Amino acid sequence: MTRAYVDDKRPLLEVGDVTVRFGGVTAVREATLEVHEGEVTGLIGPNGAGKTTLFNVICGLQRPTAGTVWFADGDITGKATHERARLGIARTFQRLEAFGSLSVWENVLVAAEIRGHKRPADVARHLIEVVGLEAYAQAPADTVPTGIARLLELARALALHPRLLLLDEPSSGLSAAETESFGELLRDIVAEGRAVLIVEHDMDLIMRVCDRIHVLDFGRVIATGTPAEIRADENVQRAYLGRSEEPGSDFDEPPAADLGEPLPDDFGGAWINPAHGEETRRDEA
Ligand SMILES: Nc1ncnc2c1ncn2[C@@H]1O[C@H](COP(=O)(O)OP(=O)(O)OP(=O)(O)O)[C@@H](O)[C@H]1O
Ligand SMILES: [Mg+2]
Q: Which of 202, 258, 276, 283 has the smallest CB count inside 10 Å?
């Protein structure tokens, strides 16, 4: 793949023309996006737009039907999840996946040990401090509130010392105050030179923390730009506002997508469907 880069800086991650089909459902269509070091990149779009599927392609849980994934100047399209992890890709899941019977501290320690740090306990202690989990360190992971469990997931992912951190709806279940400090934490993480790609329905958070945003709709990237550009983009407004105000008039209804309530013009607050939280699955593949 040969490409010219505007600012001469090659992105850390490049997704090129990726398509994913599940039987008759095309979840991702020729999607192209870039993620740069030192930046928070947002991936947004209505329920069922293909965000989680694209995440799975990037971390190796889903083979694309077509297209390529480049990471740190190498083609990783055919690489397994553990090889990608070794190259520096870590992710959190839309549904929380901590080891419940272990304490918060042990969860982070195990991740630091898996990464092979020389002093895993020091790394774990530092990360517990970074994300602000000191008060919960000894609590069993399955007893902590959702907001704390999200921070635990972040600490575990950071213990892998990723160059690229993929976060799937990290603010779901967080209070407004927790979401705000989570956003600040993300800025601290990228200030160290890492890259973050975040899927998120909370538009306040996205607009506040992202350097650039890609918008998916029916599996296609319909817009890419800064938060200000995305806010002003007519295609984006149509994708979110048009179809919920006039369902079926300009758009075909997506498969298994819940379009939720009409949105405010300024994209403030939480988007889409407050009852959302489960990854959409079909078993026809
Ligand atoms: N394993 C699968 N088999 C069949 N269809 C699938 C599978 N995974 C996802 N899909 C379908 O692909 C489309 C995209 O789903 P995906 O979960 O990627 O969307 P999303 O943007 O993450 O949505 P949400 O905001 O609800 O999390 C949906 O139509 C979904 O039903
Ligand atoms: Mg999803």
A: 283
Is the distance from the beta carbon of residue 51 to the nearest atom of ligand 1 less than 6 Å?
yes
pLDDT tens per residue, range 25-38: 999 999 999 999 99
Per-domain residue ranges for the chain? 9-88+162-271, 94-161
DSSP at 205: H
User: How far, in Å, from the CA of 278 to the mean position of ligand 2?
Assistant: 8
Q: What are 136-193's pLDDT values in tens digits? A: 999 999 899 888 888 999 999 999 899 999 999 988 888 899 899 999 999 999 998 9
Neighbour tally for 9: CB within 10 Å: 10
Closest Cα partner for 62 from 96, 31, 40, 39? 31
Structure tokens at 40: 């928070």
Q: Which numbered ligand comes closest to the C-alpha of 271? A: 1
**170 Cα to the center of ligand 2, angstroms:** 11
Pick the ligand that lies closest to the CA of residue 63.
Answer: 1
What is the pTM (predicted TM-score) of this model?
A: 0.82
